[in-house]
Every structure is written in structure tokens, then in C-alpha cells.
Design a protein that fits this description.
This protein is of the alpha+beta class. About 65% of the residues lie in helices and about 15% in strands.
Length: about 190
Amino acid sequence: MNNNEQVDQEMNLNDENINEESVENVSSEMEFEGVEPQTASDENKLEYEVADLKDKYLRLYSDFENYRKRTAKERLDLITTASEDMLRDLIPVVDDFERALKASDSEVEASKVKEGNRLIFHKLVKVLESKGLKAMDDLVGKPFDAETQEAITQIPAPNEKLKGKVVDVIEKGYVLGDKVVRYAKVVIGA
């Protein structure tokens, strides 16, 4: 081989190396350029979605906080004014008691004072019943019920029928709807 042939071969090899490097560079640039715009747009989409979700979360959180504060305020208002209606209905009964006390100072007949007190008592009971409060009546002779009654003591039953049953009522019990407001205090026969 002569020098010219060697130079030609080296140039061909260099050309092949250059061509391979060029192809690799071009293809890697194409891959990089092709991937980067797609990645950039995906990143923008994800950033937008994250920002949108954060905004929705903050709005939902604010709405919930507003709802919580509003319901707490309504609950507080309800608690403070719940008894307003009841008190408005009891004020006339208090007025009647005041009039009865003034009248009883000058009254000499006890039967008239007693009758006036009975009328006021019945008026008070009617107001309480109109609000849903009911007395537990007629408990004597009925079986003891721990759900509505509280046993104060146990005494020997006067007869066999009253064993395990209510013999006497010390304090009446009251229910408001289905809820026991005050348990009846009873004596049970043993």
C-alpha cells in the first residue's frame, strides 16, 4: 500500500467515525428536543392541576370553616334562646303567684287562699304539659323500671302483690317526649 491509499483509508475511517458521532449527536438531540417539549408541557399541565387542586382545597376548607363557625354560632344562639318561649309562658304564672301572695296577706279565709293556689298550680302544670313535659303518674303497684325510676329504699311488702313493685313514690318523675328529665324516686316492696 502506498501512502495515498493509507491516507484514503484513514480519511474513510475518520469519515465513518464522524458520521457515527454525528448520527448519535443528532439522534440524541432529537430525542432530547422531542422529550423536553413534551416533558415541559406535561410539567405545565401538572403544575396547573396542582394549583387548581390547591385552589379547590382552600375554597373547600374555607367553606367548611365558615360552616363550622356558623353552626357553632347557631348552636350557641339556640342554647341561649331555647328557653325563651318557655319563660314567656311562665311569666303569667309568676304574676299570678305575686297577686295570690298579696291577696293572701289580707284574706282571712284559708279556703279562698287554698283555692287560688290550686288554680295557679293547675295553670303551671298546663303550661309545662303544653311544652311536652309529662309527669309519671300511677306508679304505685306497678313493677319497678330502672329506666325511668330510681329506688330510694326497699321495705317489706304490705302484701304479696307488691313484692318487687313500687310501694310509694317519694318524688314524681318527668319525661319530655321520650327522654326522662327526672327519674321518679320510689320505694320498692321486698
